[in-house]
Amino acid sequence: MRFKTFAATAVTAGALALATAGPASAAPYWQTVSTNSNWSCTAYRTHPVSTHVNWKLCEVVNANYDAQVVVVVQNTATVAVSITGATSSNYSSDGTCLTSTLNPGFTRGCYGPTRALPAAGSTWHQGQLIVNGVTDTITVYG
User: Fold this and answer.
1) Distance between CA atoms of 32 and 102, rounded to whole angstroms?
2) Which CATH superfamily includes the segment(s) 23-141?
3) Are 102 and 81 in contact (CB under 8 A)?
4) I need a labelling partner for 73 at 20 to 30 A (CA). Which of 11, 44, 95, 117 fits?
């Protein structure tokens, strides 16, 4: 009987911990990307490793002025590439996505955690994308 009580308490505590957790972050795993009007992105640019790997840096801001930095990469090549990504900002939307294979025709995002934007002053956010061992960086100020 003690085991059943302990198990029930553990399950309840685990559910409570999940329900009260902070904002979600996809890092360290690459995720699918679906943009809407909350997304502000740079134009796609070609990664130095290949004219068939394009990427951009996005900032997603919600109605509460919480923001999340996202590195978005698309592979238009006919071969898979190896990707690693990272996000950072002066409001701590810092995350690192694990090395993964990006197959031809796919688009994926490395999402930093959602954080409150500063009440005053300017902001910056940055993304880094490593493709087949070659690094490229985008920084946005403002």
Assistant:
1) 11
2) Immunoglobulins (2.60.40.10)
3) yes
4) 117
